Structure formats: C-alpha cells, structure tokens
Amino acid sequence: MTPLLPASSNSTETSLIHDLLHAESPSSASRASFGDRLELLGERLHELADLSGRLVQSLRDGRTDTDLADRFLTVWREAVRGEAVLELFREVERERQENQTLMEISMKLSSSSAIEDVLHTILDSLRQVVNFDAAGIFVYNREMGQLEIDMLVGYEKSERQKLHQKFQEGVKIGHGIVGTVIQTGQPIYDPDVRKDRRYIAAREGTLSELAVPILLRGEVIGALNLEADRMDAFSERDLRSLTTFSNHAGVALERARADRIRLHSRRMQEEISLARKIQASFLPTKTPDFAPYDLAGTNFPSSEVGGDYFDFIPITQTDMGVAVGDVTGHGVGAALLMANFRACLRIESRNNFTVRAILSKVNDYLYETNLPESFVTAVYGVLDRQNHMFSYANAGHNPPFRMRRDGSIEWLQVGGLLLGAFPNVDYEETAIRLEPGDILVFYTDGVTEAYDSAGSEFGIDRLTSLVRELRDLPAGEMVRRISDSVHQFQMVDSVQDDLTISVIKYV
Amino acid sequence: MKYSTGLKDGIVVFALKGKIMGGPESAEFHDELKKAVVAGQHKLILDLGEVEWMNSSGLGLLISALTTTRNSGGELKLARATDKITSLLVITKLNSVFETHSTVDAAVASFK
After folding, report:
1. Is residue A3 part of a domain?
2. What CATH number has the domain bearing residue B106?
3. Residues A384 and A485 in one domain
4. Which of B55, B63, B96 sits opposite A373 (nearest CB)?
5. Which of A440, A498, A412, A409 minimizes the C-alpha distance to A296?
6. Residue A300 is inside which H or E element, if any?
7. Largest CA distance in chain A
8. What does the angle CA A422 – CA A444 – CA A301 come to, to the nearest 5 degrees?
9. How many other CB atoms sit within 10 Å of the CB of residue A220?
10. B34 and chain A in contact, CB less than 8 A
11. Predicted pLDDT of residue A322
C-alpha cells in the first residue's frame, strides 16, 4: 500500500534489452527514457556489426574463431528475438497513441461537447494506453465535505447502484482510497486491494487499484481511479499516463461545473418567466363593463412573480365579485399560494354564498393546504349594481376606503382574521349603500408602505389626498396616476413590495 | 433579526430585535422555540420591544410560533409590541388571537 509504485513494476520478461538495461543500472533502468533505451539497442546493433565484421574477417583469413561465432550468435539471436523488438514497437505505438489521444481530448475539450461526452472520451482514450477493467471520475464537493461520483465505467448495474448508494450516504474526504487521494493530493497504487483496509468494495473482481488526484490550479478537485481484475496490474508508466489524463479531466470538470450552473440558471430563468406569464394571466386583462360603475385595477410585482392579487369576478348580470389580496412573502412561493387562493376564491364565489361563508370556506381550505407560517390577507365583496349595495368582509387586509362626493372617508374594516393561518374562523360581513360619486379604493401595503430615500412612508394620508385630487378622472386613469406617483416617491434601489391598487367609481 | 433567550419566574422569554422579515434567521429562531417547547416549556413570551419593523413573513413567524406552542398544549403571549406592530395586529385581526401585554412583567404575571 505504498503511495508510489513498487520497484518491480515491469513485466517478468527477460528480453535482451531488459537484461541490458538492468545490467547497466537496475534502479535507474526502469526510469530510463525510451530514447535512452533505443540508444542502448543501437549500441547492441553496433556490437553485432562489429562482431560480424570480425567474424567475416576471421573466416576470410581461414581461421574459425568459435568463441567469436558463439558470441555473435548469442547476441544476434537475442537482439532479433521477437519479444524484444515487439516490446520496442509497442512502446513506440503507445507513445504515439497517447499523444494522439491527448490531442483528441484537447480538441474535444475546446469544442462545446457535453461534459459526459468529454469525460467518456477521457476514459475511452485512457483505455487505449492503459489496460484497466473499471474506472471512475470522482469530484470533491467542498460545501458538503463529501465526494461525488461523476462518471463510472466497467461497473455492472447493481455494482453501480451499490456505489452510488454508498456515496449518497456520504463518503467523506479521507475515506476510502479515492477519499485519501483527494485528502493528501498524492496518488495511491494498491497492487492488492484485499490487503488495504481503506478500500471500499463495490465491484466484483477488482484486485488492484490506481488512483490519482485531479488538480485544478493547484487545488485538488477530485480523483481519477482505475481498477483491474489482476493483481499488480499497473506500472509506473500507467501512473504517468493517468496523471496526464487527470490534468485534462480537471479542465473538463471545471468547464462542466460552469456549464451546469449556466444551464441551471437559464432553466430557472425560463421557469420564472413562465410562472410570470401564468400569473399575469390570472389578473383581469380587461376590466369588465359594469355600468354605472367604472372598474379598474393594476398590479406591479416586486420581482418577476409576486404575491398580490386583484380580481373582478362576474357572478350574475347584476353582481360582480371584487377581490384584493396579499399573500405572505414574495417570489415563487408567494405566487403559488396566490394561485391557490385565487382558484379557491373563484370557485367559492361562483356558488354565491354569503361573503362571510365564502371567506370561511377559503380560510379552511388554505389552512388545510398551506404551510403554517403562510397566510393571505384579503378583502372580498360583492357589488350589486341593481340595488347599489356593496357587501364585503375584510380578512385581515389593509382596510379599503369609500370616498364620498364630499371627500369624506369611511374605512371598510368589518370582517375577521387573516386567511389560512387558523382553522374554523368566523367572519362578519356588512353591506354599504353606494351613492353616485362614491369611490371605493382597494390597495395592498406596497402602496402605503413604499419608502422614499429619507425613509418616510408613502402612507395612507398621501393615498387619500391623491384620490381626492384625482377623483374626477376615470377609474383606469386614477389607478395609473396613483401607481405612477408611488413609483416616483419610492427610492429606486429600496426593497420594494408588490404593488396593487384597484378602484370602483359610481359614475 | 436577532434574539436572546431568558427565563423569568420559570417562563421562557424570547427577546426579538431588529427587523423581522422571514429568512434563515426566522427559521433558526423557530427551531429554538420548538426546542424549548419539546423540552417541556409551555409558557412562552415574545418580547417585541426592540423590534424595529416586521413584514408579512415576520407575522408568519409569530403565527407559526403560536401554533407550535398551542399544539403542544402551551401558550405564547406577546409583550411590548410597538405601535407599528400593534397596528399590524389590529389590521390583520391577529389581536383576536394573540394575548398582548404592555410589559414583560405583566405578561409573566398573566400566566399565574
């Protein structure tokens, strides 16, 4: 279990070349470069030429130097022995192959291929230079302090599942061969995994394992791991090849990480845009004709999706449901809760129960389906254009107001608790008689709690005086002017709330 | 938002500070409150005297704190709610659900 290769890394063959190399300097021989070894062979061939020259000369001289002949034959036989020559050619081929595959990998890496393709290429190409039965690419998730599997080859399905499960349960840095390599940044060669207690068995038949760290700008980001079904299957040369490949894997993994983040955020963006479109479709696009009443409303979500809601729900020829609501929080969670509230309110309002019964039912439904900390504040009422009555109940919402022709104000506060937080809530309702010139104004706290750069609030007084000022304008124009002035008031980079306002005028 | 936990006459007093607007700090506080409830503390007080501001998520936190306490047979009372928070409780009608006291001592006394 030495971290480096054992000395007997080469095969047991006893070719001339190997004998030569080992005879010269056993310790440095295995590290002798291919060029050095070729040079030694050249020297041997020179010796052969020399011997043959001397042999020919002695024959011409009529002498038979048997010692010389024996020596020549020995050297000649061994020098041309297939194995030795083949070994040399294998080395040449392997070197050429490795250079070519490295070039292919570089090209793949610089193209825009998917990460899985690139990692597959790395392992496939590695197979052409190193003989292995299984391989894996592992990455270190620093945030979680855990290792993750990025790619496995050579594993049976059941073995793959077993390993994935082990990693899901959490393989920490320092755990197993791969975890140790990632912790120390040093390669490990295990000629016999059965003797290494760190080895996490997942694959049938593995006997030796070679793992190297994957480095990126000097930092260990993962490990590349090879397994073989033979003992002592890897050489020092394999270690060098694996290290070269792991450097490429580092670059690929880095790119993969960036790609995944980009893809993820693009998907999120697409989904939020879709949510925005769906949500926008919930709001009335065109305010219904409901003479002699002039209706209008507007909504500005603070982020792409919001938690405010307003609606005009035609119930009968003479009755129009009017709703304004604000759900807890902002963003997607709020939007989902809002969709739920809207669906429920619309269904219940069509049944034409009393307003208080509708709110009780909506409350119970929301209570059953929502998280305990989320709720909705809302006002729901029914405008009866025949009898000019507005029956409403206020469920914990900022009170709407009625402004009469003389400018006096009346708050619509009758109702009960906000919706969805507690079960079995009873609501009170009341009906007000409307007079020509009356204006009903509904809003969310995004209007009254808008802050300017000095930290002062837009406030309810500013809203009521604005309505008084704009009272002769059509409802649509009033709504537009009010939201404009809130936007102008508001500090540009302040934390903004969803903003909703709707107006009913008895013309 | 910050909070500190104290004990007064055997009653747990959580003093909340700053802006209460949901997020991870709120979740952390709620976990702390759950721990107290699980440990058998059934009389809890939230001291809101140092709370600068509260949005709807903050109200959500008060509601879930109350629900957690009541589900285990306990009671949670509010103390020293500022005018701003009081008006929020009035608008949302949560004042019909929460018992509020002008001082922590009064809230403690009300448990006896």
Report:
1. no
2. 3.30.750.24
3. yes
4. B63
5. A440
6. strand A293-300
7. 144
8. 105
9. 18
10. no
11. 97
* A71 or B99, higher pLDDT: B99
The closest of B15, B93, B24, B85 to B55, measured between CA atoms, is B85
Among A262, A292, A322, which residue terminates a domain?
A262
Is the ipTM above a cut-off of 0.95? no
Determine whether A324 is exposed, middle or buried from the number of CB atoms within 10 Å of its CB (0-12, 13-18, 19+): buried
Q: What is the enclosing helix (H) or strand (E) of A158?
A: helix A157-170
Q: Where are the alpha helices (DSSP H) in A185-289?
A: 236-282
Q: Would you say residue A106 lies in a domain? A: no
Q: Which helix or strand (DSSP H or E) is residue A72 part of? A: helix A66-80
d(CA B34, CA B12): 12
Number of compact structural domains in chain A: 3
Domain span at A422: 282-506
Polymer length of chain A: 507
Report the alpha-carbon distance of residue B3 to residue B17 in Å, rounded: 6
Which domain range does residue B71 map to?
Answer: 2-110
Q: Which structure tokens are listed for A23?
A: 């005879």
Total domains in chain B come to: 1
Q: Which of A328, A356, A371 to mutate to test the interface with B (most CBs of B within 10 A)?
A: A328
State the Cα–Cα distance between residues A11 and A22, nearest whole angstrom.
Answer: 13
More confident residue, B72 or A250: B72
Query: Across the interface, do A328 and B59 touch by the CB < 8 Å criterion?
Result: yes
Is the alpha carbon torsion for A269, A274, A275, A279 positive or negative? Answer: positive
What pLDDT, on the 0 to 100 scale, is given for residue A83? 55
A452 & A309 share domain: yes
pLDDT digits (tens, 9 = 90+) for B7-33: 999 899 999 999 988 778 888 899 999
Phi-psi region of A464 (alpha: psi -120 to 50; beta: other; left: phi over 0): alpha
Q: Are residues A73 and A148 in the same domain?
A: no
Candidates A180, A409, A424, A446; CA nearest to A298 is A446
Q: Alpha carbon of B72 to those of A423, B43, B60: distances in Å?
A: 16, 11, 19
**SS3 category, A475:** helix
Cβ proximity of A434 and A493 under 8 Å: no
Which residues, 6 or more positions from A239, have their beta carbon under 8 angstroms from its beta carbon?
A5, A187, A189, A210, A212
Q: Could you list the mean pLDDT of each consecutive 10-residue stretch along chain A, which spans 507 residues? A: 39 41 40 62 79 84 82 75 65 75 68 68 80 89 80 85 81 84 91 87 88 88 91 88 82 78 87 84 88 95 83 94 89 85 93 90 92 89 97 97 96 96 95 97 92 88 96 96 92 75 96
CATH code: domain of residue A443:
3.60.40.10
Of B56, B91, B97, the CB nearest to A328: B56
Check B56 against A326: CB less than 8 A apart.
yes
* 3-class DSSP state of A11: coil
How distant is the Cα of B93 from the closest Cα of chain A, in angstroms?
5
